[in-house]
Amino acid sequence: MPRFRVVVADFLADALKPEHELLGDMADVVALNATSEADMIGHIESADAVMLYHNIAITKETITRLQNCKLIVRCGVGFDNVDHRLARTKGIPVANVPDYGTEEVADSAIGMMLTLTRGINFFNNRLQRKSGDWSYMQGTPLVRLRGRVFGVIGLGRIGTAAALRAKALGMDVAFYDPHKQDGYDKANGIRHVEKLDDLFRQSFVLSVHCPLTEETRHIVDARGIGLMPDGSYLVNTARGATVDATAIPAAIRSGKLQGAAIDVLPVEPPPADHPLLVAWRDPADPCYDRVILNPHSAFYSEEGLLDMRVKGAQACRRALLGEPLRNIVN
After folding, report:
1. Going edge to edge, which strands form the sheet with 232-236?
2. Could you report the per-residue pLDDT of 227-279, keeping only the tens digit for each?
């Protein structure tokens, strides 16, 4: 049996122990640690399978050069960084790993919500720089979460996990997802909202959990935020471009948003002159205390990272052996 070649395109630069354990009997596994498509030229063309993370995109430039590829697996949930439609026309299936970080991302979304709504980040920041009195009065008014609306955009695996966590806190959970069939509201004991604007209008906390598509790009923008109740909160642990982050500073300054927690941005790392970063880094701007930024870390735990690698390698093994593929997105 000839040996195959599996290319790990980006993100990983270690000894690839999990990948070798699963694939080493049949394939040579190579990590390119690419930061752009150009870095892969001359190294990926003969790959029998490609494992892709989130540091780069695979577009027509790469797909048209693949000679033997039996699978591109996006080792993560979102797959907007691979041209899966073009890959299908070339006979290359694209899969994702939809379940590796469900708990971690949901936990992060709820943790961010609690950090915002209980004033934890706000008080810490103020006291750390000796700004204001050593008193809860700096953060008034904070309100009880029980009975408040936790709005979810996208009731997939992670959205459902976040919804159930919010429900456990006694919140009134509502979701918008036009692609969900009837009954998920009843199965989970939450409410289905048919119109996105209605979800905006009632959400005390709005948490984004949808994939990035043309339909969901900037699904949360200045107009939508403007419909939210004054003093509400926004959390995004989905994909950066689902939220127009440039609209957040004005919403914080006006009091429309009391806080925002953003784990993902369209370009990572973001440019230093991004309006949200400029405001977040300015001690004179209210965003300094009311915005939380994380470096696309909501997915991460040691267990979750291992799951992502193992499940990605297992997908490659199935493809190389000609076995039925799972989680195909194209």
Report:
1. 191-192, 172-176, 149-153, 205-208, 232-236, 257-262, 291-293
2. 999 999 999 999 999 999 999 999 999 999 999 999 999 999 999 999 999 99
E strands, 9-148, are 27-31, 49-52, 72-74, 94-96
Sheet holding 72-74, edge to edge: 27-31, 4-8, 49-52, 72-74, 94-96
- Residue pLDDT, tens place only, 71-99: 999 999 889 999 999 999 999 999 999 98
Polymer length of the chain: 330
Residue 179 designated active-site: no
Look-up of token digits 């050593």: 134
Whether residue 61 lies in the annotated active site:
no
What sign for the dihedral angle of Cα 249, 253, 254, 256?
positive
Q: Which tokens in the block code for residue 247?
A: 């609209």
This prediction has a pTM of: 0.89
Query: Which residue among 65, 253, 274, 296 is the active-site one?
Result: 296
Helix (H) or strand (E) holding 277: helix 275-280
For residue 269, cis peptide bond before it (omega within 30 degrees of 0):
yes
Torsion of CA 179, 310, 324, 327, to 10 degrees: 10
Average pLDDT over residues 135-145: 96
Instruction: Name the region of 13 (left: φ>0; alpha: ψ -120 to 50; beta: rest).
Output: alpha
Catalytic residue of the set 5, 74, 126, 239: 239
Kindly tell me if the per-residue pLDDT of 1 is higher than 80: no
Hey, is 210 helix, strand or coil? coil
Q: How far is CA 192 from the centre of its chain?
A: 22
Choose, from 3, 268, 281, 303, the residue flagged as catalytic. Answer: 268
* Annotation says 218 is catalytic: no
Average pLDDT, the chain: 96
Closest CA to 276 of 249, 252, 294, 250: 249
Span 11-27, pLDDT tens digits: 999 999 999 999 999 99
Structure tokens given for 254? 């006006």
> So what's the pLDDT on residue 67?
96
